[in-house]
Amino acid sequence: MRETSRARYGCAMRDEARILSVSELTSIVKEIIEGSLPLVTVEGEVTNCRPASSGHLYFSLKDRSAVIQAVMFRYRNRGLGFEPEDGMLVRATGAITVYAARGQYQILVERLEKAGIGDILALLEERKRRLAAEGLFDETRKRSIPRFPERVVVITSPTGAAIQDILNILERRNSGIDVLILPAAVQGETAPLELLKQIERANRYHLGDVIIIGRGGGSIEDLLAFSDEKLVRAVATSKIPVISAVGHEIDWALTDFAADLRAPTPSAAAELVSESRAGLAREVAQLAGELETVIHSRINQARLVLSRFEPASVEGRFMKILVPSLRRFDDAKEGLLRGLTDSVALRRHRLELALGSLEASSPEAVLARGFTVVRNAKTGRAVRAINELSQGDMLDIKFSRGGASARVEELRE
Prior knowledge:
- By secondary structure, this protein is an alpha/beta fold.
- The chain has three domains: 3-118, CATH 2.40.50.140; 119-275, Rossmann fold, CATH 3.40.50.261; 366-407, no CATH class.
- It contains twelve helices and 13 strands.
- It has helices at 3-14, 22-36, 74-77, 117-133, 161-173, 191-204, 229-236, 254-258, 266-273, 277-307, 311-360, 363-368, and strands spanning 40-51, 57-62, 67-72, 89-99, 104-114, 151-156, 178-183, 210-215, 242-246, 261-262, 373-376, 394-398, 403-407.
- It has a five-stranded mixed beta barrel with strand order 1-2-3-5-4. It has a five-stranded parallel sheet with strand order 7-6-8-9-10, sandwiched between helices.
- Strand 1 and strand 2 (57-62) form a beta hairpin.
- The protein is elongated.
């Protein structure tokens, strides 16, 4: 407390006869409070939040026992990364002032941030990285959602707006789908365990063809149950395909990554599991039209093909095919005959030449030219050299006409 404030306050207490005006008293209180408290950070829940048309933000901060007014001027709230709303837990840093016109103290907020959000986000990011490293979020693990499920299991609060939205959409789009509601708390300490038990129950007894698990929107603290590690693992290993529908489109929870499909809202999840009857009727009508078109096209093609098999048309096409073949056959036959004739003539000429050569080189022809054949009378072998004979050997001599015998009387080199 500054010295001037103490002095004025002391004088007012000692001078019991002096009567203070409201403005004087308020001024003393203002000077005491503003002079005593430096910049402070206050944590509390936002209430009565009302943005002004000027851009200033007016709200109150409360806890279980007290309330303090707060104001954040336009030039301060331009950089806010979120929109304050009632029920949000925040930390406000600023100076304490007294608003004399109303006789109340308030905090002039210079900086505003969500309380605990940084720690929660860090925790969720770490958990997300760890589970992703284990492969729980891999696309290869995810299964397709059945297009025409007979029964849909909905795990959510039975009193929340989300279940009403789901039921209304299913009734409007396809009332033939059975809906089984497995009630569970969707926020608070017991929520993760209740959600986990219902997931396990649905799988143990195979209660449906697809599971929708989720809730309506809320703060990041409200959605924490759907990022519980055990629940995320149960969603990832569920034998029944799971659709995670947590909060609004901008909200997220770890079940969104582990589920087979993420829906931006519970209403969107209901639309994903229910084909619209009107949409199905349009699709059937479209397919029927396409099928009729294809059938007519095939019939016309068949008629066109069959028209080619009329007698005159068949004969004409047959002759177009047959005549070139017959012509090629005749040409081939003539070519073959010419080839055979030429080949026979060539071989006959070669044979005649061979016979002439053979006759010219035959022994008879050689003898006719004055040569003789001398053989050893004893061995019958032709004598080619003088060393094959001995004196006194008998010889057979063959002439072109006739023959003679002789004895070797003398050998000459």
